[in-house]
What does this fold into?
Amino acid sequence: MSTQTLPSEAAQTPVAVNPTVAERKGLTKKELAADHPTWCPGCGDFSVLALYFKLLEKRKLHQDQFVSISGIGCSSRFPYFVQAHGAHFIHGRALPFATGIALSRPDQHVFAFSGDGDAFSIGGNHFSHTARKNVNMSLVVMDNQVYGLTKKQTSPTSPLGFKSKTDGWGAVDHPINPLKQAISMGATFVARTTSTNPNHVLAMMEQAMDHNGFSFIQCLSECVEFYEGAFDSANPRKGGVFNEVPKEHDVTDEFAAYQLASTPFPGHFGVFYKVNRPTKNEKEAEIIAKHRAKVGEAKDWQILQKTFDRLK
Ligand SMILES: Cc1ncc(C[n+]2csc(CCOP(=O)(O)OP(=O)(O)O)c2C)c(N)n1
Ligand code: SF4
Ligand SMILES: [Mg+2]
It folds into this structure.
């Protein structure tokens, strides 16, 4: 996410995040790591966290320049493990919370982390609407195709026939395709990766971070406890195939992206869709600037008082 400028208000004065700031030493993984993650040994989420540290390290981001926001779930414990500002918020509600930060603090890189249940089930509406609003932030969904924290219920991405505590005879509901949902709802950056390919995860995170607008990454991340082997067919070390998005794919072609996202599992990995469209941040900043020009030096409380006086 590139940083934008909001007008006036000392508290909102943006501090441009310059990844090459020479006078400040970048943080190390050791400095960025908080508590030891409480995930099960072998959980795919470890890899995503390690690569987030790598991203912050590489881009020399400091604690005053980014936030990590999540909902609820194993994957959503993520911000606990980062020694920086963040919130482990309400189940499914990471995106509205992150939107508030993105709009009010343009100096921050806003990263949201979520699970397939958190983002596509209880938070499915927020996922769609944040995409359509093109809020400037990056969302990484650690998709294990199951509810891990609550010990194996069917999630919106569980495949047909998946046996769980909620579908003892096997899932009968057609799974969603998060990439197609994001593209059709108007997300401006849509990518897919898998936690077993660290270089690829980092590359996707970097591109998402550099995108001005809502960037979404579906990251396959195995739950070794409740859906072991789910992604073996996407892992060459387990006899699977890791197919990158074809080089000739036009990332600005919405229809082509949609078609590519329809490839049966294990599908492709990489950037499916990337276009530039004005962000909600820019549009709101414009409205504020226009209004500011009208009210001159009036303080916020004076504008508010006037509004209430008018309502009398
Ligand atoms: C309002 C509400 N409903 C239900 C729950 C119980 N709950 C907690 S996490 C979760 C599902 C998490 O699944 P997912 O987002 O896929 O994360 P994972 O644990 O698999 O990483 C549910 C149903 C809750 N905490 N709050
Ligand atoms: S239950 Fe699954 S998702 Fe949760 S920490 Fe364990 S392996 Fe990871
Ligand atoms: Mg899950």
Notes: The chain has a mean pLDDT of 93. DSSP finds ten helices and eight strands in the chain.
